[in-house]
Write a structure and sequence with these properties.
The chain contains four helices and three strands. The protein has two domains: 75 residues, no CATH class; 75 residues, no CATH class. The chain is of the alpha+beta class and 156 residues long.
Length: 156
């Protein structure tokens, strides 16, 4: 198939104007536009989860819970929240988050150890896996459920 000379001329004009560029297909797209995706965010105060756009530390300050106005924490794309009444499950998730773990698919990390099933297994798991691939953030011990319990007991 051959192009007409007129069409070729118009294409060259568009390229010169910058309205016909052949950059990367995702260039210039924000996380909330067509190719962006939503990531699980959790509120540890009211034990709720929400799907929100991927927040980068530079672009967005983060999200607040629409129910209780506490901070939402970005958990990762493969996060599965425990039931609201599963307090042990939420303590486990919060403890893992406080140690810097995020929740991703094991597809790319077939040989890495699975995250613990129960809260009482978290401490041993963290000590035994200092270089786990899901541990991507700096620890924030102020978010650890035991630290919050101790702080709450001191306030009374």
């Amino acid at each position: 198939m051959t192009r007409s000379p007129e069409k070729t001329r118009r294409m060259e004009l568009r390229r010169a104007n910058g309205t016909r560029s052949f950059g990367h297909p995702t260039e210039g797209l924000s996380p909330t536009s067509g190719l962006g995706y939503l990531v699980a965010h959790a509120c540890f105060e009211c034990r709720s989860t929400f799907k929100k756009p991927l927040a980068s530390a530079v672009d967005q300050p983060g999200f607040t819970c629409p129910r209780c106005k506490a901070t939402l924490h970005q958990m990762g794309r493969s996060f599965r929240a425990p039931a609201k009444n599963d307090l042990d499950g939420w303590k486990k998730v919060q403890a893992l988050f406080s140690y810097g773990f995020r929740f991703f698919s094991y597809r790319s990390f077939e040989r890495c150890p699975r995250l613990p099933e129960r809260f009482k297994e978290v401490e041993a798991f963290v000590r035994g896996n200092p270089k786990h691939p899901f541990r991507i953030a700096e620890p924030n011990h102020a978010l650890h459920p035991d630290a919050l319990t101790r702080a709450g007991e001191r306030r009374r």
